[in-house]
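Re: beginner question about structure tokens

> Can someone show what the tokenized structure looks like for a real chain? I only ever see the sequence side.

Sure, here's an example I had lying around. Input first:
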Amino acid sequence: MKKFFKLSLVMMLAFTLVLAGCGKKADNGGAAPSGNASGGEKKSDVKIGMVTDVGGVNDKSFNQSAWEALEKLKKDTGISTKYLQSKADSDYVPNLNQFVQGKYNLTWGIGFVIADAMKTVAQQNPTANFAIIDNVVEAPNVQSITFAENEGSFLVGVVAAKMTKTNKIGFVGGMDIPVIKRFEAGFKAGVAAVNPDAKVLINYTGAFDKPDLGKAAAATMYNDGADIIFHSSGATGNGVFNEANDRIKQGKKVWVIGVDKDQSLEFGDQVTLTSMVKGVEEAVTKYSKMVVDGSFKPGAPVTLGLKDNGVGLASTSSKNVPADVLKLADEYKEKIIKGEIKVPEQ
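And the corresponding structure tokens:
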């Protein structure tokens, strides 16, 4: 009897331990604890922040490209990333300062219009590191990265000029600032190079975050006979795509040329003729990686053009652009790289 009692007690204790073990596993959902020790996850003490312009992080354009680059780097290296969305120009300084106060290793400013705010904050915080896309900030702790948008826009101008059926082509810009003027100048030069009879209609909406203005601008241009519109207007350009899609549903054949990203991935091949892509994602990745490995040191401003693969046609262009037109665009690309053609900036 005593032996039976002792055996029963041992079995009860063992059963209790099993239940306890099961309970602990259920507490964390059955997942292994995070960290290098058991989960194999990479961890890093590096913190990188990003301040958007008013277009926002989901602008389907360069803000989104920059954030996607940081998110991928976070996954690959275990760094901490965070973005602050700016709703107005008055948000730039406090947003930049928030990352400085948080001891972030690098703070990105995405967009031409952030330059003045970044210069102010950088001068006030000389030990903090910054980087800006699309403008130049003269400060020793800021890495400035710009692009030769005029060169890439020349190529989509060639495509538009060869593919228009009406000889009327539109350009919708956001704010009337130097970076967008480079898009316009290159685009018009590309059109003129291969189709001097084509007319380019111009409309600046004055905003990067107003799809309704983009839609209205596109409607006016399509009504005036344009069958292709190239936009360089951030989230405002979403409205250009919306207007084009509305007309396609009505049986009309119109196109949009996207900007910064391959916008066919967002809006579809039925409306996106091609896109003038900028290497924002590559640039943000490159300089952010330097922070991770300890080699980041702000230097002279960098401009990325066709020779650097910093701008160019989207890789999916062959879906809608005939091979002979792409071949022609490639020929012009080589002439630009060799210096045989000097693309205007304004």
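Each token stands for a local structural state, so reading them left to right follows the chain. The longest strand covers residues 272-278.
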